[in-house]
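Our preliminary data section would be incomplete without showing what the modeling component actually yields. Below, a chain of 396 amino acids is followed by its predicted structure, encoded as tokens that our downstream tools consume directly.
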Amino acid sequence: MEYINSALKAGISGGSMIRRMFEAGIELKKQYGEDRVCDFSLGNPDLPPPPAVGAALETIAAGAGRPFSIGYMPNAGYPALRDKLAAQVSLEQECEVPGSNLLLTCGAAGGINVLFHAILDPGDEVIAPTPYFVEYDSYVANHGGTLRRAPSKEVTFELDIEAFERAASPKTRAIILNSPNNPTGRIYSRDELLRLAGFVGELEKKYDRAIYVISDEPYRFLNFDDLELPSFFNIFRHAVVIGSFSKNLSLAGERLGYVAVSPKIAGAAELMAALILCNRTLGFVNAPAIGQQILLAAFGAEVDLEVYRARRDAMIEVLDGAGLEYARPQGAFYVFPKSPVPDDRRFVDALFAERILAVPGSGFGRAGYIRLAFCVDENVIRRSAEGFRRAVAALK
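Predicted structure:
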């Protein structure tokens, strides 16, 4: 007797590698104690929100001269916040973006799902370079589409345009990029994006359909080396930017994100109308009211980037000491080193024996690597050094 659909059954059976390692870590900590386990499994920001967030909450609770209430709002979010966010996106994208082109969503994940529901017909395809965030497959499948993989180059994870060419078809509807990237920490360069734009332009002419290029950028502020983050709105004809405030304000649990539609899209108004309708009919309705009010009051505040930069540098020292090959993470709080043996699960098991938690790269669509999330105290990172060396030695 069947109780759920077959696609979900397969997803549950496979499970999320990240969550499985996280849950295994809970048991390990119970057995040995938290100070004896080095957990790099889950990208959960551990820094407290900046003081402006606490001050905003106090102001909201006090009512600022009017009774405290949380009522209905326009489906796209509070107009004042949309305008303020549009001003920021205008600076980042180097073009004027009106508030009417912004939708507040339940996190970046909610925004991606709303967008896919608005643009995908059954059978449409979305291309993502591998490795990629593990839930992209589900987000696309949720709305009748199929995710196609375009493997990036080995170790450096530079975009491989030939891989995109192999993945493309008449059903291609969108390309999704995550920069700074989870799980590699890579920031895609202007040259890479321009090459991709040339390919996308040819594809749109060939198949006579708009192909959206989506920039999924919740890690935008985590740019350790002050690299250029090129304007997607100026490079791609049909660009959409999706972001969140989970990392820069350490508000991951508040689920606050946005979708910004390029004003250069001829059908931008129609797309925005579809997004607003999908936000409501998919059940999200609005991004959290308190989260939006916090953001409006604390806009521009961020957690300390230097803490994450120091952790990145400590993680690199640990990997160098273990003799591992990796691409230096330019942003986000992840690194994706190459496994010393082809079977990445063997390496994860060897690390687990040292009470170090990592996630197999195969869970991100790229076998032969592991992902480490260094959003943990620097002391935890440095404490893992000897365990990494022993795990690598055990596999030789």
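The chain has a mean pLDDT of 93. Residues 70-298 form a domain with the Aspartate Aminotransferase; domain 2 fold (CATH 3.40.640.10). Preliminary results of this kind motivate Aim 1 of the renewal.
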